[in-house]
Design brief:
Layout (H helix, E strand, L loop, with lengths): L3 H29 L14 H21 L5 H25 L14 H11 L1 E4 L4 E5 L3 H25 L12 E10 L2 H10 L8 H7 L13 E9 L6 E10 L4 E3 L5 E4 L4 E2 L1 H4 L5 E2 L8
Helix pairs in contact: 1-2, 1-3, 2-3, 2-5, 3-5, 4-5
Amino acid sequence: MKNFGGHVGVAFFGILSFAITVALVTAIDRATGFNLFALSVWVVVPVGAALTGAAAASGYYFGSLLFHTRPNWFLLVQVMIVAALAQFAIYYAEYSTLVLDNGIRVADRIGFFDYLDIRLTTAHMRIGRAQTDTGAVGSFGYWLAFFQFVGFILGGIATYLILKNHPVCTVCSRYPRKLATSSQHFNDREAFATYYDNLFDHPVDGPAFAEWMGHDPDKGRIREGTILATSTLRGCPHCKTQRIVQAVQIMGKNDWSALPSLARDVIIPQDIDLRPVFKGETGRRIGAQPASA
């Protein structure tokens, strides 16, 4: 297996995020009585469980970016296992730390599965804006636990898919890092079209390109119909290749809406550093990069 040390590091990060998530959810539940993974929409949509599963598996995402390991089937299996185990680990953490008002530890009196049966069948649901208590859920609690179990797994899979779709350097297949961002606001669509159509017609290391990148005619004057172009400069730490990822949004009545047809990802010639451009200067040549470092 290539980059064996990197895969070990990713696994360590995954186990660490799993442990931290279990500890945090349990601590919050003990302190406030609020169980994050029990949060749901329309009773059977396990939003909280999905978020918790994603958090438990997040170490695999950040570890993969840190060690430059690409997602594969083995990583997906790890993510799904960790996300699924998170639910039972939280149940067990609650069981092992639960102390009654009279000072008796629950773990000293009943077994884990007896505790789990009591917990699931005596749980209460609160629905609606008024948070109306429906009373003990009875055997339906097992179905709720199953829906949450599915939510945990889906949360883990979502983390994997985000990693799989993360931008990758086309030269050396490493994960590029975010180097800088800039944004331009336009209240006139023709002005935006002129900017959008002309930006990459100029040499990226020249003054005209730098001037267009700093062009922000309607900054601070956001209203309905304002167009926002956000440019993110990413750079590969290995081969030094840079790219500009540009997203375009338009302001509606209350929020921004993406215009995916205008999104673009432009690879910069390998010997050019555009960090000065994002600081309001002209790009500079950084010399030809070696094939490997």
